[in-house]
Amino acid sequence: MPLSPSDTRELLARLGHTPKRFLGQNFLVDGNIVKKSLELAGVAPGDTVVEIGPGLGTLTRALLEAGACVWAVERDATLHAHLAGTLAKEFPATFHLLEGDAVEHPLAALPVGKEEADSSTSAPAFKIVANLPYAISTPWMDAVLSGPLPARMVLMLQLEAAQRYTAQPGTKLFGAISVFLQNAFDAAPGHRVSGACFHPRPDVDSCLLHLVRKPQPFVFRPEVKAVIRGCFQQRRKQIRPLLRSRLPDEGRAWLARLEATGRLGPASRPEEIPAPLWRELDALAFPTP
Length: 289
Description:
By secondary structure, the protein is of the alpha/beta class. The protein has 2 domains: 5-213, Rossmann fold (3-Layer(aba) Sandwich); 223-285, rRNA adenine dimethylase, C-terminal domain (Helicase, Ruva Protein, domain 3, Orthogonal Bundle), CATH 1.10.8. It has 13 helices and 9 strands. The chain has helices at 5-15, 31-41, 58-65, 77-85, 87-90, 114-118, 137-144, 159-165, 176-182, 222-232, 239-244, 248-260, 275-285, and strands at residues 27-28, 48-52, 69-74, 95-99, 127-131, 152-158, 185-193, 198-199, 206-213. The chain has a 7-stranded mixed sheet with strand order 4-3-2-5-6-9-7. Helix 3 links the parallel strand 2 and strand 3.
């Protein structure tokens, strides 16, 4: 069972630890949310699960008791030591804990062979279930979307971040991260979560987001991701001049394809172009032999 708010405060006091705002440390204290996370992820005995920022180990324990093999990364030295002295000893065969930055280690220490690393979509079967530290949600997601990709993700994160990931073209929240994610995952409707489910209570609303890998997910090449990010940094400008200095030849061919839709063209703005069309730019820049 998750720790109650009072139990959480007592444990933090025993550890001599004050939640660090800059790390987004808001500890889950609602058992229903933990249960819902495991249900959405379909966690079964023997599953491989990556967890980001396990904190005090509430979600971690539930995953381990469900029979999952958990690979977790925790940046905070005090919390890492707490987990190493408790859950790591209780579940020595199935709990693999790394102390480090989740943006640098987006899949914790999960072993990924060179073949899987080079072929981003042919990943070994694993899932990500996490109460994601709000401070790192977008840079971490960007790192995950470089592959290999999990079969599904169930993430507790800031509501605005969830809205950015699932935003539609023509809206102010639609951006580069929306393009990258929507070409790799389908999103189920999110579940809004009250701040009362956390200690300390966050100042922003939260969302439990469920993402399922597409049957044929697409992972953008780093060079094209950089171009797309650059375009969205000037999201209100027309797409033709934005591509002229970045991918002049490929850009002209892509603009012709946009015009063929009958709805878009050189005068369109990045924020107006649907996520699936951006993958054609990647294909033109790096044609398959």
